[in-house]
Amino acid sequence: QVQLVESGGGSVQAGGSLRLSCDGSGRPFGAYAIGWFRQAPGKEREFVAAQNWSGVDARYAYSVRGRFTASRDNAKKTAYLQMSDLKPEDTGVYYCAARYGIEYAASDYDLWGQGTQVTVSS
User: Fold this and answer.
1) What DSSP designation does 9 have?
2) How many angstroms separate the CA atoms of 81 and 21, rounded?
3) What is the pLDDT of residues 55-77, one digit of tens each?
């Protein structure tokens, strides 16, 4: 079973960029789809992006489409979320999660990282 650890969060001003990493240990990382979710204070965890095991198929929430890009390097057991043109409403704790096959609901994912905080100021 794979274990996930996120990193790369931080505080940026609106319009800035961050790249989140999701490091996987154990195996088989390359067999899993990786989903990215975020949770703002007082709100439910919401889907941000997901990428299938090969990286060929990527899906995005409408709110981040064109600004966020998911990628992965299975040899390094790492997935990435490049976030550009960040907005204050992107603020939250970002999580990566793994499962077999892309799904959009957080409840469909069994394996989760601990999360990393992203704060975007106006």
Assistant:
1) -
2) 7
3) 999 999 999 999 999 999 999 99
Q: What is the pLDDT of residue 49?
A: 98
Shortest CA distance to 95 belongs to which of 42, 28, 27, 44? 44
pLDDT digits (tens, 9 = 90+) for 3-39: 999 999 999 999 999 999 999 988 789 999 999 999 9
Give DSSP secondary structure letters for 87-119: -GGG-EEEEEEEESS--S-GGG--EE---EEEE
Please tell me the distance from the alpha carbon of residue 92 to that of residue 53, in angstroms, as a whole number.
26
The pLDDT of 91-98, averaged and rounded, is 98
For residue 44, how many other CB atoms are within 10 A of its CB?
8
Encoding tokens for residue 2?
A: 């794979």
Q: Does the bond joining 28 to the residue before it have cis omega, within 30 degrees of 0? A: yes
Q: Which of 30, 67, 64, 45 is nearest to 112 (CA)?
A: 45
DSSP per residue, 20-64: EEEEEESTTGGGSEEEEEEE-TTS--EEEEEE-TTSS-EEE-TTT
